[in-house]
Amino acid sequence: MVHAVKFVREVTRRIQKDHLIGKEEVPGEHVQSDDEIREFARREAWGHHASGTCAIGPREAHGVLGSDFRVHGTRGLRVVDASVFPRIPGFFIASAVYMVGEKAADVILADAKRAPH
Q: Which residue of 41, 54, 77, 86 could cross-link 64, Cys pair, CB 3.0 to 4.6 Å?
């Protein structure tokens, strides 16, 4: 990502000189060093996989789900997809989503075994 940001900046500098495009909006001129670009990408970039909209965590920390994937304050509703991550787990999230699915299956099965029949 650092290389990609630097590459795009180099290409756009030429176009900016000809006044064909405006200034850089994101990550912005204040993000310059490799470490700053890397940190920006870690915090902000999510590729084409949205995630984190129903993060697991306590309500007081703005978590939407408990560790059992149940939505806080509801009955009979669980969420098991990329939205459960508090932060994006990387650019290629398929394996992380598979792991969440496996974990959720274990949790749901354990709950079903404990439920009275």
A: 54
Rounded to 10°, the helix 2-17/34-44 angle is 110
Cα angle 70-107-48, degrees, rounded to a multiple of 5: 65
Give the pair of three-digit tokens for residue 2.
């650092």
Beta bridge partners of 70: 78
What is d(CA 93, CA 95) in angstroms, rounded to the nearest whole number? 6
Please give the Cα distance from 112 to 114 (Å, whole number).
5
Catalytic entry in 19, 30, 49, 72: 49
pTM above 0.85, yes or no: no
Q: How is residue 87 written in tokens? A: 């932060």
Q: What is the pLDDT of residues 44-103, one digit of tens each?
A: 766 666 788 899 999 998 899 999 999 999 999 999 999 999 887 877 889 999 999 999
